[in-house]
Amino acid sequence: MMFSITVNGRKMPADKGETILSALNRNGIKIPTLCGMKDFTPTGACRLCVVEVEGRERLITACSHPVEEWMVIHTHSPRVLKARKTIIELLLARHPDECLYCVSNLNCELQKLAEELNILERRIRGRKTRIRLDQSGHSVVRELSKCILCSRCVRVCEEIITVNTLDFVNRGQKTHVGTSLDRDFNFTSCINCGQCIIVCPTGALHEKQNIAEVQEYLSNKAYQKVVQYSPAVPSIIAQMLGIKPSRDPESMLNGILRKMGFDKIFLTGFGTDILVEEMSARLEKKMTEGDPGTIYFSACPAWVKYVEQSGDEIQGDLSALKTPQQIIGAIIKSHYAASAGLNPQEIYSVSISPCTAMKFEAARESMTTRGICDVDAVLTVRELAKLIKLYGIDAVATEGDQADWPASLRSSAAVLAEVSGGLTESVMRCTSKKITGNDPGRKPFKSLRGTSSFRETEIETGGKKIKAAVIDGLTGLTKLRESLSAGKQYDLVEVMVCPGGCINGGGMPVPASKEEIRNRARQVYQNEEADPVQMPPSSPAMFNFYMKEVKQNNNVSAEKILNTTFIRRDVLL
Amino acid sequence: MENLKKYLTEKVLLYDRDVLPAETRKVFQTITREKYDYPVVYVSSGTGGIIAGSGKTASAVKSYLEAYSPGASVVNVGCAGPLNYEPFICVQLPGKNKLFFRNITEEKVDTILDGVFHNDLPADELLGQQGTRDYGIWPGVPFMEELPYFAYQKRCVLSNCGCYDPESIEEYIARGGYRTFVKTIRYYTHEEVCSIIEKSGLRGRSGGGFNTGTKWKSALSSGSQARYLICNAKESDPGSFADRTILESDPHRLIEGIAIASYAIGATTAIVYLRAGSKLAEKRITGAIESARDYGIIGHNIFSSGFNLDIIVRSEPGAFVCGEETALIASLEGRRGMPRLKPPYPTISGLMGKPTVINNVETLMNVPLIMQNGPDWFRGMGTEGSKGTKVFALSGKGRYQGVVEVEMGTPLRMLVELLAGGVRDGREFKALMLGGASGFFLNEKLLDTKIDFDEMSLKGFSMGAGGLVIIDETTCLVDTVKYYMNFIHNESCGKCIPCREGTSRMLEILENVIRKPRSEDSLTTLERFKGVMQLQTIATVMKEASLCGLGQTAPNPFISALEKFRDEFEEHIFDRKCRANVCRGLRTFSIDVDKCTGCTVCAVRCPENAIYGTRLQPYFIVEDKCSGCGICLEVCKFSAVIVK
């Protein structure tokens, strides 16, 4: 039911049931917010969205208050502006003022608000917060002094990721976002997904930066520099650098990486192809043998840590296949090193990933060969963008280039894997082909595509029914458990910790709205359809390199390259 | 015991007519020891009494009575009188009026009891007598109700406090208790109870002043199946202890109030939300709930009325903010005690998302009285907008401290001058702090304000939950405001920015104001002034934009003190002087050359080694080193130390 309200002396339409904020936004009035996130219940903690409603003694928050017909609202009266300005000034009174040295410089909401509210003078002074830096985590670094306690990370960790690592600790001025018993990150249940980084409005949470290290090795002639990047990276980088969509982002990125000084460029997507191939082989074996168990993907490193620390029985059902990044990493340090006549120590292997948990993954003990890491450094997309800036590379003028053999080609399955549900889709197609011998084509699995946190599908192929479930964000796990206890059985379960999949990874540019994620997913589906090679086995790299050289190499067993082991982790839950 | 229980249940609680037969009243007189063949000694045993040593007094009385009069009994009662009279005892001889004595410590017991039993009343400790006016009078002893402390009170809510053994349900029933509840659930519908309370004009006593009946109706009319009643017995303001006293002295009436309120809103679970530190209150209320359950007053299908009720006692996790409704609910649900946004109000969606009514202890204490005496009786007391009485916790520099109850409409001056007996030690009255940590400082002019929700809010303040602190001239207001600000700053939950940051900034600015001038350079002086200029802005923004009541009211002490006592603030800021000589940083000490004998005591005791001199010659204080602690002033036997 529409009615009209008076805002700043003018009539405006408003809908019954919506908040004042959404009514104002729709009518072209911008109200600043700091704690608000779309699709979350408003907490009203930052108080920046306060507006004046005639007849109310106090200012009320626009983000939470339902709009009512009688309301006469002033959104930018002196009283309101004074309150907003003072609130930001109060935050700044204690803020460390390290903007020039901050990761979020020029990408900080607090900075923007201070500019918007025309704060030009330090009117309120306060004792600065003691610097507290927690860099014990593998992926996430916390700088508590920069935290403005908007509680976005707490809510994401609790409501989306459901690991509840972060919460408020202490009271009053001593309040901060802390972990269980206020321990450092490496002791906690953090699964390194990095979703908190995405929502953090300031530089209080950011990934552990490897830029300096990569930079150092890039200038070191003693090493061969090898880089691999995930299929989600090129288009995002192109978007961040403002490249026209008509240009092929992959070849452009190859050119940029070459300019930066990388000797060899590999595609992580080739690892995904191997993963899909191996996974479908296992699924086919399971289906033909009639084994009743469930195979869980272990392609999401955050999910793997979640399983390891939760002590869940699922651990036994994890596929034990490495993540694509680590498969390529292992190939680089074994087959590639041998063919290039290099010691594994002489190769510096970098991976560019949309994921922060990959940093943790690369540092696992099971991901090393004789004490040498398979992947030496993992950069997020954000870090890569910084590195490109640092090296002064003009992307527009950079010529395209090819990736290097053997991991220079990938199938469309690898593209699809960037969206949650994509891996399952590819594996099901491959398995179906293996069982029946017929190519199932590119018909999309409609029930696996979408935004709900728990999606399931069932296909019949060669007289066998394959049931699969996709958990898109850990909130879907409860629904899976409900389904399982209701007697349902699945042959294949894919879990992606970040809702939407790797396209919404913790290493992607901040901030990301839901529409943005949906656009990225749409882009992925389009790319997949446009890609010439569909089935991993039909990719020449798979055919010529993987099948012939990796599988039949007697020096290094394929087992060693493909498989990993899991441990029990005792963390503070 | 079983027989008594059966008798009380059948012949009293379930007795249909209003007036009980004479035979029952006789039984009552035995239970309440009105007609008793042996002496009875009542010892006040609230927290105030226990701190003053009433436990030891009670055992001394017991051992005395064992030797003197074996049939005599000692009864622990709640707290009735001024707290500075604790330990407070009352002796009742057979056929005689009760005699009250004050400050009876362990060692005084023998003399006092000797005196009473041998008709030689000790004059110093004797307060007065209570009882009938025709027989049993102690000649020459004033009646308690004529003492100014009691004469100006109208004790309705507190009428039972200090009169009966709070651990005995029989005594409460014998004093007319629980009959109202039984009558209510048997003869009234939920709506009728709500209407009676609404008609009586009872308004919430925790400060907001919302009509209780209306609140109940809004919860009752919600469609939900489950509803909850929460009795908010968590008072953690510095200087308020009324609820705790009530819980310790009269837990049964509170339970009756809770039970009636639960019936009115159709709640089957009620929760008493206690302050974590109130151990005695917790023990008394839990014991009272147990005995009420034993009597079938709470439980399943109470007296075949079809009404079920369970009362649960819960202790808060120890945070001031948990007194705020939504934070209270969050803490009950096991979450961090942080307030959430309203609407939805708890009456629509509260505990576990169900409609929840949260009432203050005092509000609920009024309920059985209104149900018993009717709404018109209640409307007969008080002013146009505020009916009934109001309980205050008097503390500070008055002559008497304690929990008092006055009729609405009484001027505050009466509380200060008659009930508190004016300022102690003949000092000058300076201010009245009304309403706890986020309350208001009132000056002498405002004392003529009547106790009335509407009149007070017109004048820009509110009575809060009824904490009343009397402040005299020896207290520095800037320092007191800083104390309250520090309290709020520590207790802010940290959720919203205006409260979390605002309280800290205000505290820091106030700290700057009273910091030692000598350790200041020109830049810090400028900053001090800049800070002071911002205080008002921060205070206004906190008031207007904070999330919950804690933040919205946090600047009240500052704003009201600045308004009423501006000169004192200006003295601190501009003249760098504290007129009460309390602020350490602003005190300067010097030694009077004529008076100093050179005894060296001050120099030895000075923690900063700021006092120099030669033995038997006048000493002097190096001001730069002096921290203003004032130890020299305390230790000097010749009054040679001068403070400015």
Structure, described:
The complex is a heterodimer of chains A (573) and B (644). Chain A is an alpha/beta fold. In chain A, strands 2-1-5-3-4 form a 5-stranded mixed sheet, sandwiched between helices. In chain A, strand 1 and strand 2 form a beta hairpin. Chain A is globular, with a radius of gyration of 25 Å. Chain B is α/β, with parallel strands linked by helices and 644 residues long. Helix content of chain B is 40%, strand content 13%. In chain B, strands 2-1-3-4-5 form a 5-stranded mixed sheet, with helices on one face. In chain B, strands 11-10-14-12-13 form a 5-stranded mixed sheet. Chain B has a 4-stranded parallel sheet with strand order 8-7-6-9, sandwiched between helices. In chain B, a hairpin with a 5-residue loop joins strand 10 and strand 11. The chains are: A alpha/beta (573), B alpha/beta (644). The interface between A and B is large, with 39 and 38 residues.
**Helical content of chain A, roughly?**
25-40%
Task: Assign the CATH class of the largest domain in chain A.
Answer: Alpha Beta
Largest sheet of chain B: 5 strands, mixed
By secondary-structure content and strand pairing, the structural class of chain B works out as: alpha/beta
* Largest beta sheet: strand ordering of chain B: 2-1-3-4-5
Label the CATH architecture of the largest domain in chain B.
Answer: 3-Layer(aba) Sandwich
Count of β-strands of chain B: 18
Indicate the CATH topology of the largest domain in chain A: Rossmann fold
Please state the second-level CATH architecture of the largest domain in chain A: 3-Layer(aba) Sandwich
Strand content of chain A: 5-15%
Name the average pLDDT of chain A: 90
CATH superfamily of the largest domain in chain B: NADH-ubiquinone oxidoreductase 51kDa subunit
Question: How would you sum up the global shape of chain B?
Answer: globular
Report how far apart the termini of chain A are: 46 Å
The tally of strands of chain A reads 20
* Overall pLDDT score of chain B: 90
What top-tier CATH class of the largest domain in chain B fits best?
Alpha Beta
**Parts with pLDDT < 50 across at least 5 consecutive residues of chain A:** none
